[in-house]
From TrEMBL:
InterPro entries attached to this UniProt entry: Homeodomain-like_sf, InsJ-like_HTH, WH-like_DNA-bd_sf
Residue numbers spanned by region Disordered: 129-148
Residue stretches spanning the membrane: none
Annotated Low complexity bias: 137-148
Residues in Insertion element IS150 protein InsJ-like helix-turn-helix domain copies: 10-49
Pfam families recorded: HTH_28 (PF13518)
Coiled-coil regions, chain positions: none
Provenance organism: Bradyrhizobium septentrionale
Protein name (record): Transposase
SUPFAM superfamilies: Homeodomain-like (SSF46689)
Length: 187
């Protein structure tokens, strides 16, 4: 972020306009500042009697404070989403954006984590496709194969499908290597 121009330069530009008779455009060109800058400095001098800049930066009190903070702390004991909290705060009369709410939740170390059974966004290359919860065999998708080999489970499932006549579905590069080792021939 840029710094404010010096008070000395501000005073010289304003003095050139008010006492020297220069236009704001001429004073801006003479002192090497922007035209709108010179206009604003002269306007500030007429309004306040000073050319000093306003404060830049500083402390800004948090929007989520007092009764809203207490309500939000209670509310976050149950499941929530940040977007949902923004909407609920708006209903209660406090207009905040997503970022403000997220920063509050993060600063207070509040979070809602879904349990492991809810990870059902879809299949990846190394895990079986997500079917119904009862159909998923085993609770740990990264567990070793159930036949006692040291194959990763995703490769074992693909090998099993291949050996049963079905098309392999996952990890094709590793699948070929493991198939060749399992069957003793090139896959």
């Amino acid at each position: 972020m840029g710094r404010a121009y010096s008070d000395d330069l501000r005073e010289r530009v304003v003095r050139a306009v008010i006492k020297g008779g220069l236009s704001r455009h001429q004073a801006a060109a003479q002192f090497g500042v922007g035209i709108s800058t010179a206009i604003n400095w002269v306007q500030r001098f007429h309004e306040t009697g000073s050319v000093k800049p306003d404060q830049i930066g500083g402390y800004r009190p948090k929007k989520i404070a007092g009764p809203h903070r207490e309500w939000l702390m209670q509310r976050c004991r149950n499941d929530f989403t940040v977007r949902g909290l923004v909407a609920e705060l708006a209903e209660r009369g406090l207009k905040v954006d997503y970022r403000t709410t997220w920063e509050f939740v993060h600063a207070e170390k509040l979070s809602y984590k879904k349990d492991a059974d809810c990870r059902r966004a879809g299949s990846s290359r190394c895990h079986p496709s997500a079917g119904a919860v009862d159909q998923v065999s085993g609770s740990d998708p990264s567990a070793a194969a159930s036949d006692g080999t040291n194959l990763p489970r995703c490769v074992w499932l693909s090998c099993k499908r291949k050996l049963q006549g079905g098309p392999p579905r996952l990890c094709f590069g590793r699948l070929r290597l493991w198939l060749s080792e399992l069957t003793g021939r090139a896959a």
